Amino acid sequence: MAKATSSANTTGNSATGREHRLFDILLRYKPPPWRGSYSLSRLFLSFYLLIMGSFVGIAYVADLVISTSVKGITDDYTRRFMQGTVMLIEEELFRQPRKDWPQAIKGIGQIFSYRLDIVERWSLKLNPKQAEKLDAGELAIDKDGDILYHRLKHTSQVLVVGPISPNASDQHPRALPWEVRLRLLTWSLIGLILAIAVWFWVRPIWRDLETLRQTARDLGEGHLEARAPEAKSPAFKLLTETMNGMAERIQRLIAVQKELSSAISHELRTPIARMRFVTEMLTDADSPDERRRLQTMMNDDLEELDSLVDSSLVYSRFERELPEPHLTRVDFEAWLNEKVDAIRILGRSLELHVDCAALPPGQLVELDQKSMPYALTNLLRNAIKYTKSRIVVSAEVKGNHIFVHVDDDGLGIAKADRQRVFKAFARLDRSRDRATGGHGLGLAIVRLILEQHGGTAVAEASPLGGARFTLSWPLLHDVTQT
């Protein structure tokens, strides 16, 4: 006895310790404050700089590749274009004495729109390929393709022609060359157009991010009814739908858990109170018969608690997420007779009849072999509990649906209660006593099982005078004969 007391004290201390730890965790936890929001200007600037920088980099590399590729073609064109002019200048120089060449080149230079000069060969620094061309008597071109060099025959002097571009010539000075001005104008227009495009692209994204952030904040603060509005940007459409679906599911789960917690706590009180009362009576019971009676009552209460916990877990699992049904094709008449025969013993002296006359011969039906028997068994147990003497189970096919009716000749269900009876923990007045009382979960689970099969469960008045429960779900295949 002392050992049992010590064990009970240890268990109590352990439970108390767990409670203290739980309270410590809850008291220590403080959700971080909500800070900041998405900045449209910062988002726009980051996107713009990224896109513009990438565009400029790509354009620069492309221009470099194209310029390098066409440089040989451009140099060859310039060489052939200026060949005649250079030869004319050379002939004009050789008509005069060499001492007069500096003066003559100035006079000739005034005729052309580009600068002319004569330098010594050793003063030039050209790349080997152009130096080889120069020494071979051909025209050499500088790396920019704007200045030409021609070695005057039988001399060490070189005629320098250029820059041949008007913008580079001293005779046509300008603040900015027209190529530079054209490039600046082009890039300015590109930058402006790109900025407008990025603005109209970023703004819907910013609005969607802000609405999602605000919705997440509302959900985090406990406003579970908050939903994100429809996304303006296609990129966030699926995310918004997913978030709203998640919020809907969380709200549903919390509502179910609250409902279950409240209802179960209420349902647990009665058997626990009875067990406490029986425990107190056991200490005062003298006769063995009285003790056995009290122990039987206690066992019944334990079975009731076990049944409540089991039903609550099943209902919670189905309500949280309907599992995908694993459908199996069965001969429905044989299946129905088998399930009814399995529970017939509980009816004892009751008349339990199966009527499959309205079924086509060999009717095949697809159903989940785990969940659908539970639904049918629950209806049969319910009928056995409330019937007077007779229960009839019948089946028929209407259109592309199979219908199963469970009729009894009991008290029946008032019209106002026929919808409410399928809600969790809904109990009618007649079920409040212990003899016929349940937990109000059986029919709620039946409804969920039929929803799993894409069907319905309804309560109606029975032709026998009591209640009729009808299960119906679609036939996924045409009527076939075995």
Task: Please tag this protein with its features.
4-stranded antiparallel beta sheet, disordered N terminus, nucleotide-binding, Beta-Lactamase, EC 2.7.13.3, 3 domains, 482 residues, membrane, alpha+beta, Helix Hairpins, Heat Shock Protein 90
Molecular structure report:
- This protein has ten helices and eleven strands.
- With 482 residues, it is α+β, with helices and mostly antiparallel strands.
- The chain folds into three domains: 127 residues, Beta-Lactamase (2-Layer Sandwich), CATH 3.30.450; 114 residues, Helix Hairpins, CATH 1.10.287; 150 residues, Heat Shock Protein 90 (2-Layer Sandwich).
- The strands form three sheets. Strands 6-8-9-11-10 form a five-stranded mixed sheet. A four-stranded antiparallel sheet has the order 1-4-3-2. Strands 5-7 form a two-stranded antiparallel sheet.
- Helix 6 runs antiparallel to helix 7.
- It starts with a helix and ends in an 8-residue tail after the last strand.
- The N terminus is likely disordered.
- It catalyses: ATP + protein L-histidine = ADP + protein N-phospho-L-histidine.
- It is found in: Cell membrane.
CATH class of the largest domain: Alpha Beta
Rg from Cα: 48 Å
The residue ranges in which pLDDT falls below 50 over 5 or more consecutive positions are 1-8, 430-437
Largest sheet: 5 strands, mixed
Give the number of domains.
3
Structural class: alpha+beta
Order of helices and strands: HHHEHEEEHHHEHEEHEEHEE
Q: CATH superfamily membership of the largest domain, which one? A: Histidine kinase-like ATPase, C-terminal domain
Q: Strand order, main sheet: write it out.
A: 6-8-9-11-10
Organism: Dentiradicibacter hellwigii
Protein name: histidine kinase
Keywords: ATP-binding, Cell membrane, Kinase, Membrane, Nucleotide-binding, Phosphoprotein, Transferase, Transmembrane, Transmembrane helix
Catalytic activity: ATP + protein L-histidine = ADP + protein N-phospho-L-histidine
